[in-house]
UniProtKB/TrEMBL annotation:
Keywords: Dioxygenase, Iron, Oxidoreductase
Any one Gene Ontology molecular-function term assigned to this protein's record: dioxygenase activity
Catalytic EC class: oxidoreductase
SMART domains attached to this UniProt entry: DUF1338
A Pfam family recorded for this sequence: HGLS
CDD domains in UniProt: VOC_YdcJ_like (cd16348)
Organism: Glycomyces sambucus
Superkingdom field: Bacteria
Full protein name: 2-oxoadipate dioxygenase/decarboxylase
Listed EC numbers: 1.13.11.93
The protein's required cofactors: Fe(2+)
Gene3D superfamilies assigned to the protein according to its UniProt record, in alphabetical order: Uncharacterised protein PF07063, DUF1338
Family the UniProt entry places it in: Belongs to the 2-oxoadipate dioxygenase/decarboxylase family.
């Protein structure tokens, strides 16, 4: 039996091998990440945000689908690898560009599974009924086009369902599952209808990449780096064209929180196009790019509210036109609004931490969390942010588009949230905050058992 986590690890490797053969610059990105991680890990306590082995092996992929039906089948495929839908992201209003998708991420949900292999896939679904982007005729053509294609074959889905139900597969079936699943995300060689693709691209390059091609594919496969600023500089030094800035929190002297991302620009890739006159010709598209990420501490709801307010403040100051770069403005806002130490993040209930027993239990039946931390009996350890930021994801998309597309904000948008997407897909979509809170609570329960006392959680509301 090849267990679920091992299937997931092998799947990540297979996709990396395939993607590297399709996008050679990906190998350069991975090589530079490995160099930076090896250097950054020296003399630093990076084990707290994941071992160097985990960080170096870590990847997240990104795919796009065209309907709830296709997303439901994606859920079945990824369930075979222990990857369940977590979080809801609405990219439609997260960017000035036309990005008509809502998204979730498929990943392991238990800390032990994340430690074994944290592979995750950010998965976006086209919202064809949103009138800000698509008129009724285009919506109808999109739905017909998407309904007429098959992204995942019957054999793949049946094997995936078995692997999910049984917690793995025998060697032969495991190999077959991995082959079929990897091929499902391979760049297609089938001709693309040029006029239909161009019509969608005028609305949104993202829409064209989803609803203008006969199959889905890996858009990017993202390694994790410990110092994204150094990575950015080294990639440029190697002559790789990077997007204009790093998305997410600024570089600063305080704790890393949430997620920082950047990428090299989308490269021209040869594709085959069919024209209205029936002729088939070579052409090229720029839809795939090389993303890289640096992960920090997961924030509580209270911490996330603070983060969002700081982002709004950055935008406000930039709008005043003071002649400063976004990094300069963001750094000033961060220094004025975010605690400069992990200890403050923890004590104010802004970040998620687990708690490790490091001292002897006091001679009492119950004690406060605050006192146990202050006395060194419990040591807070940061919980890594495993998820994504809508604005950063949209920013990466936008930075790699040839133009912003079109949208009519006078029209009504289609309402989506986590609940509606879950209903359409027919699968529970977990709330990331609940998962982090559960990990935190589990560590406190374990500490209570070790210390033999009741811990009063007197931190601010998580």
């Amino acid at each position: 039996m090849v267990a679920t986590w091992e299937l997931r690890a092998r799947f990540a490797v297979r996709l990396a091998e395939m993607y590297g053969s399709e996008v050679p610059a990906y190998h350069t990105l991975v090589d530079v990440c490995t160099e930076v991680n090896a250097e950054a890990a020296k003399g630093r306590d990076d084990e707290r945000l994941g071992s160097i082995e985990r960080v170096t092996a870590e990847r997240h992929g990104a795919i796009r689908v065209g309907s709830p039906r296709e997303l439901a089948k994606v859920a079945r495929v990824f369930a075979a690898f222990g990857m369940l839908p977590v979080g809801f992201y609405d990219l439609r209003d997260a960017s000035a560009s036309s990005v008509p998708v809502v998204s979730t991420a498929f990943r392991p949900v238990e800390a032990a599974e994340l430690a074994r292999n944290p592979f995750r896939v950010f998965t976006s679904m086209l919202v064809t009924e949103d009138r800000r982007f698509f008129d009724a005729e285009t919506e109808g053509r999109l739905q017909e086009f998407v309904a007429g294609r098959t992204l995942f074959g019957t054999e793949l889905l049946e094997l995936a369902d078995r692997a999910s139900a049984e917690g793995g597969l025998g060697d032969r079936d495991a190999e077959r599952l991995l082959g079929l699943a990897t091929d499902a995300f391979r760049l297609t060689s089938e001709p693309i209808e040029r006029e239909w693709y161009d019509h969608l691209e005028r609305i949104s390059a993202v829409a064209a990449d989803i609803g203008g091609v006969p199959a889905t594919h890996i858009n990017h496969l993202t390694p994790r780096v410990l110092d994204i600023d150094e990575l950015y500089a080294r990639m440029q030094a190697r002559g790789i064209a990077m997007i204009s800035e790093i998305q997410g929190p600024p570089a600063w002297e305080g704790p890393d929180v949430l997620l920082r991302q950047t990428s090299f620009r989308a490269l021209a890739e040869e594709r085959v196009f069919r024209h209205q006159d029936g002729s088939v010709q070579q052409g090229s598209l720029r839809v795939r790019f090389g993303e890289v990420e640096q992960r920090g501490i997961a924030l509580t709801r209270k911490g996330r509210d603070l983060y969002d307010r700081l982002v709004v403040e950055i935008d406000r100051r930039l709008g005043e036109g003071q002649g400063l770069s976004r990094q300069e403005v963001a750094l000033a806002v961060w220094r004025g609004g975010l605690p400069s130490t992990e200890a403050e993040l923890e004590s104010l209930g802004l970040g998620f931490f687990s708690y490790r027993v490091a001292g002897a239990a006091p001679p009492v039946e119950r004690a406060s969390l605050r006192d146990l931390v202050a006395s060194g009996v419990l040591v807070p350890e940061p919980i890594v942010y495993e998820d994504f930021l809508p604005r950063s994801a949209a920013g990466i998309f936008q930075s790699n588009l040839s133009d912003e597309g079109t949208r009519d904000d006078e029209q009504a948008g289609a309402e989506y949230d986590l609940g509606r997407l879950a209903e359409l897909v027919g699968a529970e979509i977990r709330d990331p905050f609940d998962l982090y809170a559960a990990q935190r609570a589990a560590s406190l329960r374990e500490a209570e058992q070790i210390l033999g006392l009741r811990i009063d959680d007197d931190r601010l509301e998580q």
